[in-house]
Amino acid sequence: MDVENIIYHGRIKVPYKWYVGETGSRFFIGLRDNKELWGNRCPKCDRVYVPPIKTCWECFVPTKEWVKLKDTGTVESFTVTHYSEGVAPKDVPIIYGLIKIDGADGSLLHFIGDVEPGDVSVGMRVKAVFAEERTGSILDIKHFVPSNE
Amino acid sequence: MGKRVAVVGFGQTKGRSSRKDVNGVEIINEAVVAALADAELTIDDIDAIVIGNMDHFEGINYVDSWSVEGSGGVMKPIFKVTTGGTTGTTVAMCAYYHAASGMFDRVLAIGWEKNSESDTTGAIITAFDPVWERPNLGGAIAGLALEASKYMDNYEVTERDGARVAVRERLHALNNPYAHLHQEWMKGMEVDQLVELLVTSEQNQVLAYPLRMSDMCPRSDGAAAVIFASEDVAEKIAPIPAWMVATANRHNFALAGDVDMDRNTTMASASKAAFEKAGIKEPLKEIDVCELYLPYSYAGLKWMEDLGFCGYGEGPKLLWDGVTDMDGELPVNPSGGVMSSNAIGATGLIRVGEAAIQIMGKAGTRQVPKDVNFALATGFGGCYWADVMLLGKKKPA
Ligand SMILES: [Zn+2]
Fold first, then answer.
1. What string of DSSP letters covers A72-84?
2. Which of B133, B159, B265, B332 could join B128 via S-S bond, C-beta 3.0 to 4.6 A?
3. Which chain B residue is nearest to residue A56, measuring alpha carbons?
């Protein structure tokens, strides 16, 4: 049949907002107001979580003890993306790194910057650079850069 | 035939318009911790987890894995179930089936929602057909108003009848510390006086005729968790387990124009099937308490008829006679129901949990003043999805 195939274009935009919760808020406030990274420690297995979580997923107990961490860490893994999805807050190429913050277990997903992609390696030491204008989000860390610390 | 299964624990958060102090994972955890404490179990005792919400309300599409820190689901089997308004009852059914299968002895059912994190109507519209209904009719209120309007015309029902349902639900909610709406101003006032106020007050805005603000459920943040146990362990966990006697569900997915506006045919069919299975012939006499998913007031009239508690058009009489009040023959929604608390993904599961604690004798200030041998819980969702669960004190044969 020779019928024009009609398309109906949606107009729905759901205005989501997410409450970070007291635990996550405390992390972001430290980042925003004092350029500090805080994690929390499980009283049972001693693991230190960054980002902080309210309940240790392994032990199922509250992780109430706050631990101030350094702003340095090690690259656990990384990748360089050369395509743009339009949602990333920077232009390609973007270097994504899993950064194991000193004193924490597990890694923080963030950007690696001020470095040629070819010069990044697993195990490289990095240090956080904080954003000039901080609003209480994970982007209050601008990126991690190579460091001798 | 599977194993016999009972509810052995229940936990819930207090419904609130927004829980700014916790994220979704954390509110889930509050309900889980409460349910485990209620059953005197630890997370290590749980063999499988079923979890549900309406994804579009929070915009998180892999809730099962995202929430493990809160649910305790690390390295356990987890299943996500989401069926719209019925999510909570479907989660309960799915948990029941898992325990009945003989493969899992203790199954944790979780329902939750943070309605404060999006626009409820905007999100509900995404459940409607994108081409035929989203552009012109969408959301919950207008669709339910169409049903109420038809029912009023069929049986000469008035706005006062609808308001009387709202008054019952809100008065009952005053007994429930977990209910979102606590309309303290209602305390000590006569039912007639309250009904009169609701139908005449200009503050009680008409949303879509005949539905006013007071005829609708709130949107809440909340979570609930119910623990189901197989017959091999149930009586060791709970002194009085609430046994699953019969369940049924019916869907007739349809565009609004296809729904039979005269009767709630899915609820009628599902309840008939469940009652037959349980050998219940006179629901009004044999069932002791109900926790029904009544999302708006007129459902408390018409759907009572479809559930077989009275004849067609007799819903208002049953209500005005006080039969469904706390001290009536068939108390309906001692918790205050959906019209007093509606964290959507939790709502159906709360009905099951509330029905269970009436049997277990653990309902505290909202415990009905009578023996409870059978408690009925229902779920309702868009496109007239109906879930029915009958719980009993006596271990099924
Ligand atoms: Zn731990």
1. EEEEEEEEEE-S-
2. B133
3. B69
